[in-house]
């Protein structure tokens, strides 16, 4: 028989497929709409206020429904909760594609994003549960998938809409959520023999001793997480990173349009910004897992991010490609944080609570970013002050990141007897 240590992926390939497919599903509902928003507005009569609300729904949904994932996961199990979240997102995507009124479109968008918000929170603890010895590579795999789910739908939105209409262009992506649920159904249905093999694999795998396959959601775990300085540092770092990212998604085309480059050009640069998350997503989690303290990675990414902001501030219409490249690579702090949620959790039970807390608080704060930056722009009539504010917030990210990256675990191992 092959030694599990020499075949570290044996028994876990189905889970790995599930993790990657979930990553492919996590941003589709956001990315597929914005490129063809004019077609949607014309057909379902979205007002300007409703269009603005549509831009805030993703972050708010991620915060609210992501916070609900840990208690549901503790009650019914992580895997069944993930299946429910994926099917919920698929139903929401199909239903909003069939909506004929603005309120219905917005309501079903909330449902689609609710499932994805829960998936955001559930993935890190599932990686911790099944891949405690491979957190870096597995986080990299789903971070790359997440970047693809952000970059590909905008590229296909117009061709699909022109060929089949905007409803097909939006609704077709529901198949990803359904496909992502299949491996998790297999995992839930797996025989007791296979699950026993998986426990043995994790027991013998390097570093697996710090985490068990089945970890009890002991009373007080959530309270312990909310009182942890490391958890709060992670939450603030995540908030500042997500705030900057969603501000750029909301306003980068407008910044470049106001600089004289035109709306269509601004959209292409935004796509470049999204695509450049791929290399960082591939490399950053692996590097994070190999470093005792990955703070130098955070500093390096933030330096690039800050240089991109300075470029937009000083010469947005000149060197635009360089500024977008710097901003896109600078956003590599995000996969670092995803890896840290697993690496700083003592057990999968702690990882569930930590993921819910970090992403719930983080997205709640990040939701203020696009609105706040828009208000600053309206008040000043210029992008100078908003960009300076974003630079200051990068300083907050670095400060919180220093604390979040320090070695140490949140929580103590608590396993079923």
TrEMBL record:
Keywords: Membrane, Transmembrane, Transmembrane helix. Pfam families: MFS_1. It comes from the Bacteria. The chain crosses the membrane at residues 12-37, 49-69, 105-123, 135-156, 168-189, 231-249, 269-288, 295-314, 320-343, 350-377, 383-402. It is found in: Cell membrane. Its main location: membrane. Coiled coil: none annotated. It is a multi-pass membrane protein. Residues 11-407 form the Major facilitator superfamily (MFS) profile domain. Gene3D superfamilies: MFS general substrate transporter like domains (1.20.1250.20). PANTHER family: 2-NITROIMIDAZOLE TRANSPORTER, PTHR23523. This is MFS transporter. It comes from Cellulomonas alba.
């Amino acid at each position: 028989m092959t030694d599990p240590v020499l075949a570290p992926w044996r028994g876990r390939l189905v889970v790995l497929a599930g993790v990657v497919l979930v990553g492919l599903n996590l941003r589709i509902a956001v990315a597929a709409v914005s490129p063809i928003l004019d077609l949607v507005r014309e057909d379902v009569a979205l007002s300007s206020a409703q269009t603005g609300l549509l831009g805030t729904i993703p972050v708010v949904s991620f915060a609210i429904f992501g916070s609900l994932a840990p208690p549901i996961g503790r009650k019914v199990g992580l895997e069944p909760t993930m299946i429910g979240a994926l099917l919920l997102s698929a139903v929401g995507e199909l239903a909003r594609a069939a909506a004929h009124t603005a309120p219905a479109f917005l309501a079903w968008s909330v449902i689609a994003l609710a499932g994805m918000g829960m998936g955001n929170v559930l993935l890190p603890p599932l990686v911790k549960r099944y891949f405690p010895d491979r957190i870096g590579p597995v986080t990299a795999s789903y971070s790359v998938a997440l970047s693809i789910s952000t970059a590909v739908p905008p590229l296909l939105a117009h061709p699909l809409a022109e060929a089949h209409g905007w409803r097909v262009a939006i609704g077709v992506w529901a198949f990803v959520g359904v496909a992502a649920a299949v491996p998790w159904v297999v995992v839930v249905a797996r025989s007791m023999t296979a699950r026993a093999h998986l426990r043995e694999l994790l027991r013998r795998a390097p570093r697996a001793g710090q985490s068990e396959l089945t970890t009890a959601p002991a009373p007080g775990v959530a309270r312990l997480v909310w009182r942890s300085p490391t958890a709060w540092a992670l939450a603030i770092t995540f908030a500042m990173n997500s705030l900057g990212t969603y501000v750029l998604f909301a306003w980068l085309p407008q910044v470049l349009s106001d600089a004289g480059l035109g709306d269509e050009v601004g959209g292409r640069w935004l796509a470049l910004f999204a695509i450049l998350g791929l290399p960082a997503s591939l490399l950053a989690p692996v590097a994070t897992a190999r470093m005792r303290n990955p703070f130098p990675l955070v500093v390096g990414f933030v330096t690039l991010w800050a240089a991109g902001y300075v470029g937009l501030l000083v010469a947005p219409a000149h060197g635009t490609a360089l500024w977008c490249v710097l901003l896109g690579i600078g956003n590599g702090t995000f996969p670092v944080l995803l890896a840290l949620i697993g690496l700083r959790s003592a057990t999968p039970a702690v990882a569930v609570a930590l993921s819910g807390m970090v992403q719930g608080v983080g997205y709640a704060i990040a939701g203020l970013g696009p609105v706040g930056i828009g208000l600053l722009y309206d008040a000043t009539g210029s992008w100078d002050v908003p960009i300076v504010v974003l630079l200051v917030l990068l300083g907050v990210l670095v400060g919180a990141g220093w604390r979040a990256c320090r070695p140490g675990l949140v929580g103590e191992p608590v396993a079923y007897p």
